[in-house]
Amino acid sequence: MPDFLTRRNGTWHFVRRVPMEFAEFDRRGIVRHSTKVGISSDRTGRRAIRVAEKFNEELESFWLQCAQAADPAAASYDEVWRRARSLGFNYIENSELVSASAQKRLERIEALLSVGLENDATARAALLGTQPQPLILISKVFVEYEGLMEDVTGKQSASRLRVWRNSRMRVVRELVEVTGDKPVTELTETDGLDHVDW
Length: 198
Hints:
Order of helices and strands: EEEHHHHHHHHH
Strand content: 5-15%
Number of domains: 3
Shape: flat
Largest sheet: 3 strands, antiparallel
Number of helices: 9
Distance between the termini: 63 Å
Radius of gyration: 23 Å
Mean pLDDT: 82
Helix content: 55-70%
Number of strands: 3
Low-confidence stretches: none
């Protein structure tokens, strides 16, 4: 049976779990929708597959729009990164790609041309590395860190989680006071020493 299709009460239904990266935007957990195609009239599910594919495209488009509304730069970088992986390559920034061998650059260009994606901006950005990685400001570091630590912090009590969160947020606030709110990649050893001396 095709992906995302199930039988229910004599009708084909589209069923898909919300991926973890979009769970904060779509709280449904599992998305269920009737294709309105009866099993008796479509035993192999061919018509239902077309309806389910349309539902799936609309759903993925909705999820991407929600993610981009949250942080457009990060969402487009993640989209380009996933696209490179789907085309069989790791995402490499353009500066690294230029210093790579001519053979590796040629492989990426040939992959674009062989699939006919030379006019697809996302595919070009994915394989040629033109989408810059979004900068994370010092003030946003804790938000990123907290997201990575959800599996650990989810098991803590509310008061313990409050203590854990407050101590880390205090350190970030202090660092911003000392160094200013700048991208993490621009932190220097001097900034660290200034924070320790503070």
